[in-house]
Amino acid sequence: MAAAAAAANAATSVKKKEKSSLLVFDSEEDLSVALAKYTAELSGRFADERGAFSVVVSGGSLIKSLRKLVEGPYAESVEWGKWHVFWVDERVVPKDHPDSNYKLAYDAFLSKVPIPPGHVYAINDSLPAEGAADDYETCLKQLVKTGTVQQSAATGFPKFDLMLLGMGPDGHVASLFPGHPLLQEKERWVTFIKDSPKPPSDRITFTFPVINSSANIALVATGAGKAGVVHQVFGDEHTMSELLPVQMVALEDGELTWFADKAAASKVQDKANL
Ligand SMILES: O=C1O[C@H](COP(=O)(O)O)[C@@H](O)[C@H](O)[C@H]1O
C-alpha cells in the first residue's frame, strides 16, 4: 500500500482537494505516529528502488513531530545509511546557535540515528546569506550529477524523494513569506533573503520550482495557531485574496499529503463537517 494511503487509514478524517489530501488526526501524538510510519515506508521504498533516500526537512515545530521516527521499531528497521538529509531553509547563523535549523534537527533527530555524517548537508555557516545560498546550490548540482538526488524529467529541477515541511501561522513555507518577491523566483534552486519578517532576518531557502518538483511532500500543521491557514487552503469558501505561500505548493508529478491535528483542522472540520 502506498505510504500516503496507509497514513490515511490511520487518520480520523480525510479531505481531498485538487492534487492533495488532508489527513486529520485526533492528537499531535497520533499524527506523530502516522508521520513516522509514512516516512519509514517511503524510506524503505526508495532505499530498495534506488539505493538512496533524499529527505528534506524544515525547521520549526515539524521537527518535534518527527520524534516517533527515532524510536522503536523505526530506529532499528530504517536503513539510515541510505538517508541523505537536506534543509528546505536555514537561518544564516552558526550551527550551534539556538536559531539554527540544523541544530534543532541535530539535537532532536539526527543525533539519535546512524545517518553517516557525510550524508547530512548543512549550510556553510562561515558564509553570508548570498554565498551560503550559492554554495548550497552548487552542492545540490553536484549531487544531482552523481544521482544521489534525482532530477525531475519534467522540470529539470532536483526531485527529492521526500520533503517534510512545516508552515508558519502566516502561511509561509521554507523561508518563502507572504507577499515577498522570492515567491516568484523561477530560475534559482536555492536563494537567500535578508529581510525575513520572522527573525532572524538572514536565511537561505529552496525556491518553489524545487519544492514543487518533489516526489512526495508531507506538510505538517499542528496547533490552533495554524487553523486559519488550513481553513484557507481546505475550506469550501472561495476567496479572491492572493495565494499564501503554502497554497503555492503544488507538485508537478508527486504526492502532497497534509498531516494536521484536530486543533489545526478545527475550522475545516466545523465548516465542512469532515
Ligand atoms: O522560520 C521557520 O518557520 C517555519 C514554521 O515554523 P513553525 O514553528 O511555525 O512550525 C518552518 O517551517 C521553517 O523551516 C522555519 O525556518
Automatic annotation (TrEMBL):
<dbReference type="GO" id="GO:0006098">
    <property type="term" value="P:pentose-phosphate shunt"/>
</dbReference>
<comment type="pathway">
    <text>Carbohydrate degradation; pentose phosphate pathway; D-ribulose 5-phosphate from D-glucose 6-phosphate (oxidative stage): step 2/3.</text>
</comment>
<dbReference type="InterPro" id="IPR037171">
    <property type="entry name" value="NagB/RpiA_transferase-like"/>
</dbReference>
<dbReference type="InterPro" id="IPR006148">
    <property type="entry name" value="Glc/Gal-6P_isomerase"/>
</dbReference>
<dbReference type="GO" id="GO:0005737">
    <property type="term" value="C:cytoplasm"/>
</dbReference>
<protein>
    <recommendedName>
        <fullName>Probable 6-phosphogluconolactonase</fullName>
        <ecNumber>3.1.1.31</ecNumber>
    </recommendedName>
</protein>
<comment type="function">
    <text>Hydrolysis of 6-phosphogluconolactone to 6-phosphogluconate.</text>
</comment>
<keyword id="KW-0378">Hydrolase</keyword>
<dbReference type="GO" id="GO:0017057">
    <property type="term" value="F:6-phosphogluconolactonase activity"/>
</dbReference>
<feature type="domain" description="Glucosamine/galactosamine-6-phosphate isomerase">
    <location>
        <begin position="27"/>
        <end position="258"/>
    </location>
</feature>
<comment type="similarity">
    <text>Belongs to the glucosamine/galactosamine-6-phosphate isomerase family. 6-phosphogluconolactonase subfamily.</text>
</comment>
<dbReference type="InterPro" id="IPR039104">
    <property type="entry name" value="6PGL"/>
</dbReference>
<dbReference type="GO" id="GO:0005975">
    <property type="term" value="P:carbohydrate metabolic process"/>
</dbReference>
<dbReference type="Pfam" id="PF01182">
    <property type="entry name" value="Glucosamine_iso"/>
</dbReference>
<dbReference type="InterPro" id="IPR005900">
    <property type="entry name" value="6-phosphogluconolactonase_DevB"/>
</dbReference>
